[in-house]
Design goal:
- The chain has about 280 residues and is an alpha/beta fold.
- The protein has two domains: about 130 residues, 3-Layer(aba) Sandwich (Rossmann fold), CATH 3.40.50; about 110 residues, UDP-galactose 4-epimerase, domain 1 (Alpha-Beta Complex).
- Helices cover about 45% and strands about 15% of the residues.
- The protein has twelve helices and nine strands.
- The strands form two sheets. A seven-stranded parallel β-sheet has the order 3-2-1-4-5-6-8, with helices on both faces. A two-stranded parallel sheet has the order 7-9.
- The radius of gyration is 19 Å and the shape is globular.
């Protein structure tokens, strides 16, 4: 059986490929990438596969049995078209199973990007290929990336209020994908994947404070003010408003889940917030 992974040089994709190599022969793994040169360190077969170039996708999926479709990082709307290109190529080449990384509770989520995932889930359902949906929650690394800015500014800012965030480390989600890809009984299943222990942005600020020895409070802001603050820090306007919108959705519970399906799937507890923060601080030191 040949397993192909889209976005294989991305942060999640690389983790999946490397973990798969520990589980199955490397010659059964295909890395689908935009740049072959960037895939040399993966030490598996790499094929050009550009979401925006359907002809590359058809060539890349030839002979592939199972496809891990890691959702595109493209902007809202464009992501749907890119995924459709992949799905159509999978139909044309006879892919037998697609595993898709969607978003937590995609069917009811208020996150701005959830509509794209709902549409792709519907496209997959209509494709006539067995599908497994990995509805991934937020990566803890989405937040540890804000630590340098919080340290420099003296506070952690956001718009999530007291919303609980059930994040997990990127490696946890990679392990879930590998568990599904290398075992039986997952076709047709939907997994809501999130961390075991939810936390708030106040909790995040407190943990950063404890580990750094500096007092970093959490400052909650109205969504529009938070977006404006992000723009002032150099983020593009559209991305800044998207981030603020995600925080606002989190305040209403969009990033909370206590089903523990992720830890069940990977056979271990998910990585604690404190551990990921410690890793981020060590990496930046």
């Amino acid at each position: 059986m040949t397993i192909a992974i889209t976005g294989a040089t991305g942060q999640l994709g690389q983790l999946v490929v490397n973990r798969l190599k520990e589980m199955i022969p490397g010659d059964t793994i295909v890395a689908l990438v935009r740049s072959i040169q960037k895939a040399t360190t993966l030490d598996v077969e790499a094929r050009e596969a550009d979401y925006d170039k359907p002809e590359t996708l058809t060539r890349a999926l030839a002979g592939v049995d199972t496809l891990l479709l890691i959702s595109s990082g493209g902007e809202t709307g464009r992501r749907v078209i890119q995924h459709r290109h992949v799905i159509e190529a999978a139909k044309q080449t006879g892919v037998q199973w697609i595993v898709y990384t969607s978003v937590l509770q995609a069917d009811i989520s208020t996150l701005g990007l959830a509509e794209d995932h709902r549409t792709t889930e519907a496209d997959l359902k209509g494709a006539g290929i067995p599908v497994t949906l990995l509805r991934n929650g937020w990566y803890t690394e989405n937040y540890t990336g804000t630590i340098p800015g919080a340290m420099a500014g003296g506070s952690l800012i956001g718009s999530a209020g007291d919303g609980k965030i059930s994040s997990a480390a990127r490696a946890d989600y990679a392990d879930a994908a590998v568990a599904v890809l290398t075992s039986q009984g997952h076709q047709g299943k939907i997994y809501e994947l999130a961390g075991d222990h939810a936390w708030t942005l106040s909790d995040l600020a407190a943990e950063i404070s404890q580990q750094t020895g500096k007092t970093i409070p959490y400052v909650n802001m109205p969504e529009a003010d938070y977006a404006a603050a992000l723009v002032s820090l150099g983020l593009p306007d559209g991305f800044a408003h998207a981030i603020a919108g995600w925080d606002a959705a989190a305040s209403g519970g969009a990033l909370f889940d206590d089903s523990h399906q992720l830890s069940t799937l990977i056979g271990r507890p998910t990585t604690p917030l404190a551990v990921t923060i410690a890793q981020a601080l060590q990496a930046s030191s």
